[in-house]
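Operator note (shift B, R.M.): manual run for FAD/NAD(P)-binding domain-containing protein requested after the automated queue skipped it. Running by hand, logging everything below so the morning shift can see what happened. Input copied straight from the record, untouched. If output looks odd, do not overwrite the archive copy; leave it for review.
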Amino acid sequence: MTKTVVILGGSVAGLHVAHALLKKNLQDVKVVLVSKNTHFYWNLASVRAIIPGQIKDEDIFQPLETALSRYPADSWELVIGSARAADFDTKTVEIARADNTVTILPYHQLVLATGARSTAPDMPWKASGSYAEALASLHGTAARVADAKHIVVAGAGGTGIEVAGELGYEYGKTKEIILLCSGDKVAGGHGVAAAAANELRKLNVAIKYGARVQETRPAAAEGGGKTEVILANGETLTTDLYLPTTGLVPNTEYIPARFLSADAGSHTVLVDEYLRVLDAENVWACGDVVSKPRAGFFITQKQAASVAKNVEAVLAGLAPAVAKGPPVDIFACAVGRGRGVGRINNSIRMPSIMVWAAKGRTLAVPMVKGYIDGSVA
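Run finished. Output pasted below as returned.
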């Protein structure tokens, strides 16, 4: 009897797991990849793709069909749609397809890799909808960037620093760019905070500290679609373009609440040391739906590899292995197209040239090929 492995999510984590299983050519195993997007999206480069002319669509969007079609046709299926409900007791998932039909998928093994979305759904930092919607968000943001003379970036975490850095590198001498930081240090106070702030200042990015956004609204007295950004301290900034980068929301609404963390409303999936969902049989999770120890690309890669190995082991009647994380904790942040800041663990600072070479030069766009040809797994 054919055993079905359903993978929810066609991004970095889900596609990695799919490749890892399909490359093994497991007998009597079918992999069903469920994705709301027909294309794999390299969102790590979205911060640069909002600068007109820097990155081509085809460099960061590639059809999932192309990635899977290299395997025997009877070993996989691609379902375009979103998980609407999961029943871990009956081992079924309800999928709302892109064509407005609903499908009930039974599974033997289930992988939760639905990622997270930006708290601002119209921003392109994550693909929050279909391929067409993701393209529209990216193109629309790029067009507004080109037209704006005054830009406010809210959120001074990794994404906010990279967005402000790209804007400063390209437009620091022609546009006014302000980065809002809710605390007294960027990057959440990491050891790279001072270096990151210094690099941004070199690019003529102004940093406003203690600036928590309370609300935004159209500027009634201004023409041309300006936005008023009201800060918690009562100050109001009027800008041509407001780019929020604050916060991620895990895509876990389809999962019963008892399998989710209630800590500070995080709603991430509870897993054990094998990345198996607690109190669920043959259900695994990896990537931003777990965010353990934190959300991050290298962490997601390692989690996906571990989940794939454990799914394969359980299918073969073997015990799963404890999931392995990256050997070191790396935080790397590009600051424009020429510089970067980073640290290894909490004590080793990465030289700017190292961060540039590893990330800032290309934002790892060449890695997209590995996710399409399967060499990533």
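Quick read of the result: Residues 23 and 83 are 25 Å apart (CA to CA). The chain has a mean pLDDT of 95.
Leaving this for review. - R.M.
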